[in-house]
Amino acid sequence: MTHHSPANESVRMRVSGDVDLETRTALATFCRRNRYPYLFTEVLEPLLSGHGLVLALAATERPWPPKGIGSQTIEAVGIAMIGAENRAHLTPVLTDRRNATNIGLVGAVTKQLLEHLREADVPSAGYLVRQGDRALERALEQAGFAEADFQSSTDFADYLEFSAAPQNVLDTLGLARLRVGDLLSLSLDGAELDRLGSYHFALTAGLTAYLQDSLRHAALLPGLIDLVATLPPGGVPPGTPGPPAT
Q: Is pTM, for the whole model, over 0.85?
């Protein structure tokens, strides 16, 4: 039994590319509650109107009424944007503040998302990392990722993609052999916990500046911005302006 085990027992998980009104409202509340409301209004909401977003959601539900606005509370969400050549651009799992150290929940969401991508025949999934940010590069290398050919730029830095086949990441992190129930109860050995902790906490730290609306200092770009979703694998054409400075 861990601190998070009782709460994790009531979590419901699903992966979907179709987001209904109840879930949209829950996502907006989740972003506001965790102090990055702009993430929903300026980024997620416009993208949800199109195609290509895949969400892995962990949520709790109120006992009654079971439907309607406010019926679900999102505890964690993993996001993939399916872009050029059917490649997935990932955003690190976002958790409610009360789940900041809930590695079991993060592992379960990660597992569900990567398995969905694998079953959808997505050839690779990756993150955009600030060039030369060795701490993040190493954390991803230890999770089975390697530098790929996609590059992008903002006004402040160049970013390189680190990608891998979904199955490779599942195997390297040890998620392929673990059941969702084992993850939620954190029935893991020390090595498994170390791998998941290193992966999640490094990515969360890298995304912090972006979530605080400070693109200038972002070590990691989410797989959500139009810059990532719409460009071909060659990256940003020379002379293309980056996102607005913040």
A: yes
